[in-house]
Each structure stands twice: as C-alpha cells, then as structure tokens.
From TrEMBL:
Name of the featured protein: Na+:H+ antiporter, NhaD family
Keyword Isomerase: no
One MF annotation (Gene Ontology) recorded for this entry: antiporter activity
GO cellular component, one term: membrane
Membrane topology of this protein: Multi-pass membrane protein
Principal localisation: membrane
Cleaved signal peptide residues: 1-31
Every Citrate transporter-like domain range: 74-428
Length: 483
C-alpha cells in the first residue's frame, strides 16, 4: 500500500530526528543537508588518498613503531579542513561545522564509555587480580593439551566482560610462563587465544568495540530493536567459530607436561570488591539503556562513581592493612600507598582512544563527501546484505574492524535484525583470519615475539576460515526468524 509505505517512511524519519535530538549515535551523513557531492571533485580524491595513506601507516605500526593514532588524527584534520575550504568557496558556512560537531558527539559517547571500562580493567590489574589468575593457572601443573583448552575456554568467557585485548594478553602470559622453549605449543596456544578472544567479544557489547558500536547505535528495524540481550543470539555461532579451529589445532599440540612452577599469588586489598563493582557497573549500563532509555555511557559514568567512592574508602582506611601480619591474615598485600583512581584513568589506552577519534572523523568526512553512499549502493543493493556482511568480516582481517564497522554504521543500510547481528559477528571474528586483523593478534605478536608470528598464524588461516564460515551458517540457521 503506497499510503502505508509513506507513513512508515515518516515514522522512520521521525525516529532518526529523535536520535539526533538525544545525541545518540546516528549517521553522520546528512543527506538532506548535503548540498555538495564531492565524489568527483579534487577535494574528494585528495581526502580519499589521505585516508588510505594514513591507514598504510596504521597497518605498518609493527614495523615503523609509529603509534596508530598519529596518522589518522592528522588525516582527520586535513580531510575536514579540505571539505570546509571547498564549502566556503561555494558560500556554505555552517553545514560542515554541524557535521563535525555531530561526529564529535558520536566520539565523545564511545570514548567516555571505553574510558570507564579501561579504568576498571586498570584498577583490577593494579590490585593484581589478573596476576593472581595467571599464577593460579600456572600452578595447576596442567599438560600442554589441557592448558591449550583451558586458556582458550577462559579467553572465550572472560573477553565478553574484560574485552578481547586484555583477555588475550592475560592468557598469553600464562602460555609463555609454562611453554618455555616449546615454540610449537606457544604458537598454537596463541592462535587459539586470539580466535577465542575475538569470538567471545563478538556476542557482548563489552567484549569488542564493534559490538559496542552496534549496541549504542540503537539499530531499528520495522520489527524490533537490537538491544543488549539480542547479541546473545550470537553465542552459539561465536562458540562454533572458536571450537572448530580449536579442535583441529588441538590435535597438533604436543602431548607433554611443562616443568611445574611454585609462584605464590596474592591480591591487594579491595580486589574482589572492585571486580564486583565492575559487574555492577555493567548491570547499571544495561538497565539505564534497556529500561530507562538512557545512553549506556550514562550508566558507565555512574559506575565510575562507584569506583571513586570505593577509592575514597580505601584511602580513608589504608592503615588497616599496613602491617605484614594483617595482610597475610587477610590473604592480600597490604596497601600503605592509597588507591588512586586517576592513576588508573591515566593508564587507559589513550592511543586507542585517539585512534578511534581519527577513525570517526575520517570516515565521517568521507561519508559527508558522499563516498559511503556509493559504497552502500554497491555492497548492499547490488551484492545483497548477506554477501556484503560476509565481505565486511574478510575486510576486517586486512583493515582494522573499527573503521570497517563505523563505515557500515555510517551507511546505515536498511537491514533486518538478523543481518545486523551477522555483520556484528563477521566484523568481530573476521579479524582472526590474520594475526594483524585484530588488536589481540597484534598485541600477542609483540608479547610472544619470535614465537607467535604472522606466517605462523597464516599457516592455520584455512582452519580458522573454516570456523568463520561455519559460524555464519550456524547464525543463519539458528536465527533464521530474525532475517
């Protein structure tokens, strides 16, 4: 019915306007406010070239040791300055400013969300929570094959809460501690950890930035909204993505036992309570978003206040456990130096946060020029949503999944909930195909330098690709009602 279609379009337009008014994530491409199409203009070609040049520097970070945030931040400034120059010569004075401000609002929401999560992770690290877990695993005296499965399993279930990068680094420390000179075990275990961490992060907004981006975007379909709990429909497909390559690689793990270690591990005072407060913060963000319709970042910042008040309590009571005897009796290290929350804020991954700023502004600029509309037409109208979303995952193995997913969210193609979950899955696990395809893989190449390598990972890429394809088929089969 033409009338019904018009009403539906009006409702969609009204919803998009309400998202903008609430400063939630919305497409930074304002089709109705885009008076110039610069896709065939020198400014468009220059912006595209600058972005690709900047990303070449990002991909070469391992060799140049140039932090990835620097080239994309510079590129973002040049791209928007170029756009603004062209617009001013055509008599437009406010359109570019409004678009940039909107991109900054998008970035601010995601940056503050990630900053709170990173602060909690750093606080738990400072209280030796992860160190105790590492030592506990090392002292179990497990064989290489058992340790292969235990580290993979823990990576899969910890990454949805602690994020895939932190989880991968923790499990890799365990593998290096017991692996010794057995490079074959270390290589296979590291590949397994990367795949498991990325798979575990795909079904939780707290496990991967791309999943977080989709959750905060509030993707609306005519039938339903993708909320926090909807992502758990990806649990079994993500599990399949990890289990298939893990089973095949596990057959090649040496059937040996490492030398037993006798390290003793204790935490600092307040460690368990900080873990509880982090879980409470996650619950607060979910409740604020799902039931109160507030942006998730409001819940996260409220949770940061929990940690601030607890830090105040630790400072006021720090003399309680200063004596070695009291600390030993309590099962943790005494805390004569006061807990400082802002030192944990300072230890956040600022390079990653500024990299994300550069990506948001660069991709937003290319979208404002009109390139993402062209890409959306080719991928989602000519190829079809399923093919396009599978391609997104493969692209994320070469180019970081953050700009790829942000580009998709900027295009905002009209898809079903099943398709949005599919692109969330593929962008999350596609990076496992290559060691450089995810932050977890890049970090482990540095941590296990010479033992976990690009070509060592590449050798097992067909096995990982088998899990990638199987996870897609599992999602399409299990969640057929969402398509």
């Amino acid at each position: 019915m033409p009338g019904a279609g018009k009403i539906l379009n009006m409702l969609r337009a009204r919803h998009l306007l309400s998202i903008f008014a609430l400063q939630l994530l919305a497409a930074p491409v304002f089709a109705s406010e885009e008076p110039l199409n610069l896709t065939d203009h020198w400014a468009g070609y220059l912006s595209l070239g600058i972005f690709f040049l900047a990303y070449l520097f990002v991909m070469a970070e391992e060799f140049t040791h140039l932090r990835k945030s620097k080239p994309v931040m510079l590129a973002a400034g040049i791209i928007w300055a170029t756009i603004a120059l062209v617009y001013r010569t055509h008599g437009y004075t406010t359109e570019v400013e409004h678009a940039v401000r909107h991109n900054l609002l998008e970035y601010a929401e995601l940056m503050l969300f990630l900053l709170v999560a990173m602060t909690y992770i750093n606080a738990m690290d400072e209280r030796l929570v992860f160190e105790k877990l590492r030592i506990w695993l090392v002292r179990k005296g497990l064989g290489f094959r058992a340790l292969f499965w235990v580290t993979g399993l823990l990576a899969f279930f910890i990454s949805p809460i602690a994020d895939n990068l932190t989880t991968a680094l923790l499990m890799c420390a365990v593998v290096l501690a017991v692996g010794g000179d057995n490079n074959r075990f270390i290589l296979l275990a590291c590949i397994n950890i990367v795949v498991a961490s990325n798979a575990g992060g795909a079904f939780s907004p707290f496990g991967d930035i791309t999943t977080l981006m989709v959750w905060q975007k509030e993707i609306i379909t005519p039938q339903e909204m993708i909320d926090f709990w909807s992502f758990f429909a990806l649990f079994i497909p993500a599990l399949v993505n990890w289990l298939i390559p893990a089973f095949i690689m596990g057959l090649a793990v040496p059937n040996e036992h490492p030398e037993p270690l006798t390290e003793a591990g204790v935490t600092r005072r307040g460690a368990k309570r900080i873990v509880f407060l982090f879980l409470l913060t996650i619950a607060t963000a979910v409740v604020f978003h799902n039931f109160l319709r507030l942006p998730p970042v409001v819940g996260m910042l409220t949770g940061l206040a929990y940690l601030q008040f607890f830090g105040y309590y630790l400072r006021r009571t720090r003399t309680r456990d200063e004596s070695p005897e009291a600390a030993t009796d309590a099962g943790h290290i005494g805390d004569p130096v006061a807990f400082d929350i802002f030192s944990n804020v300072a230890r956040a991954e600022w390079d990653t946060l500024f990299f994300f700023y550069g990506v948001v502004l660069c991709v937003g600029g290319l979208g404002f020029i009109g390139y993402l509309s062209m890409a959306s037409d080719i991928m989602y109208h000519q190829w079809g949503a399923t093919t396009a979303n599978i391609t997104v995952g493969i692209m994320s193995a070469i180019v970081d999944n953050i700009p790829v997913m942000f580009a998709v969210l900027t295009m905002l193609p009209e898809m079903s909930a099943g398709q949005w979950l599919l692109v969330t899955l593929t962008a999350g696990v596609g990076g496992s195909l290559l060691s450089i395809g995810s932050a977890a893989g890049v970090a482990l190449m540095g941590q296990a330098r010479g033992k976990y390598t690009f070509f060592g990972h590449l050798k097992w890429a067909p096995v990982i690709a088998l899990g990638y394809g199987a996870s897609i088929l599992t999602h399409i089969w299990l969640n057929d009602h969402l398509f």
